[in-house]
Structures are given as C-alpha cells and as structure tokens.
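During the reporting period the student researcher (J.K.) took over the structure-prediction task from the postdoctoral fellow and processed the backlog of single-chain submissions. One of the processed entries is reproduced below for the supervisory committee.
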Amino acid sequence: MTHAHITSWALALILFFVALYLQKSGKEKGAKIVQMVLRVFYILILITGIQLIMGLASLPFSYIAKIVFGILSIGFVEMVLVRGKKGKSTTLFWVLLLVSLAITIYLGFSLPV
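J.K. obtained the following structure tokens:
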C-alpha cells in the first residue's frame, strides 16, 4: 500500500504543475479537466493514507502530525489553483504549501510505516 500512496501523491504533484501551467497559458478547459483529475487523486491519497494507518495498533503524535500536514498540503494546492484562476494573489499559499509539503514528505520518509 505504501507504493500506491507514494505513486498517488507523486502523480498529484505532477498534475498540480500541469494544471498550473495550463491555467497560466490561458487554456481554461484543459486546466479544469486536469484539476478534476487532480481531485480524484486527492481521494486516492486519502484512501491509501487511511489504509496505511489502519494497520497501526496506536497512533503516535508524529503520525497525527503527518496526517494533519498532508491534509493541509492538499488544501493549499487547491487554494493555489483556485486563487490563481480568480487572479488573486497566491504568494502566501505558495509559502504555506511548500512548508507543509516539506514537513509532510519529511515525516512520511522518516516514519517506519
């Protein structure tokens, strides 16, 4: 299940940058389609993540922190795309995304499961 989880979030990151590129280049229909596929990958990330933690007997704080930062990362990805589509400033959400994503990836690779 770990491979499915890593694959789903890696593909989600690629889809995020593709959607961002399409949005910046003015291809709104293509960006919308990619963003919808990206939302399906959010669900896959959550499902595989839940399956990974279901095998644990207890949930230490570090796993809870990873779950929280993972969900925040998904939220910040969505905020960057939505605010960019509306033409609003995305600087704060880019910073928050990079910080939360770095913490999530660090915790994900440092925890045993």
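The committee noted the following: Helices lie at 2-24, 28-54, 61-86, 91-110.
J.K. will present the remaining backlog at the next meeting.
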